Amino acid sequence: MIKIVLLSLLLSVGLLAVSNNTVELEKIELQEIEDRKAKKSMEDWLEGRFGLMPHYVNYLLPFGFTEQDYKSYVASDEYGHMEAQLQVSFKINIGNDLFGLGEKYYLSYSQRSFWQIYEHSSPFRETNYNPEMFVVFPISDRSYSSSFNMRSVTLAYSHLSNGQGQTHEDIYTYPYEDPNNRSRGIDNLYINFKFQYETLITDLKFWTPAMESKDKSDNPDIMDYMGYTRLKLTYFSGENMFTLMGRGNPQTGKGAMEATYSYPLVNGTFFYAKLFSGYGESLIDYNNNLTKISIGFSFSR
Fold first, then answer.
1. Which residue has the higher pLDDT, 248 or 121?
2. CA proximity to 283, closest of 187, 205, 195, 201
3. In whole angstroms, how far apart are CA 260 and each of 100, 234, 238, 294?
4. What is the pLDDT of residues 135-159, one digit of tens each?
5. Residues catalogued as catalytic
């Protein structure tokens, strides 16, 4: 109970800090500074203008419930059905229009953590790390022959891992045969097509793992569960935002679906709810089928 109160207090302090941001800025006087470069640097620092932008959704979901058991790879770990989930994700623009096509180049980093805050010692059950580099090509599709007009094409390289070391003794044996091995990771190349029809955005994504010897992989069958394609719909109605995502592998019949809803509250904070069902919510659970509902707050969309 104390941990729940502390988590709620942390959220409240964060919201209060955001709401008072303008007041805090007014306490520092910049008008009389003659050094223009120093003044500009101070303004950038005060207003947080460092080029970082949200990439995927940034959220804190204190309440996430599933009826299925989480698989434990450590005998002493016992996980509960309720946990918190948080994600931090940002990107930075590193270049533009190198080929005269209006394209933009980015680096991004995302981190998703699953926190057993309601259990003794509050362990982090799993954390996934996802750095990416990608280029976005804008498309000016004004064709009236189709309701869905293409808006952009994204090409990317993505690394996803849980940062765990290999627990088997010989790295050249089959690590996925070791039931205690926690190491998970995969490198992907992907292409994403973005379409728009009024307030509906459609993303169609195809990816393939980078070349890797299966006998050295910690999860050589991961694509059987994660699939090679993803379709995501994003719909706006007034201030409401809905998303519906589906991905899978037609050959194995395995994949996942996810639905989210967000609504603005105050100062860039949103109510956020998420329903996930299928495989691969986290890397450690890539071959564990679960259904989970999570509720909390997001700080970007």
1. 248
2. 187
3. 37, 9, 16, 9
4. 999 987 665 555 678 999 999 999 9
5. 159, 161
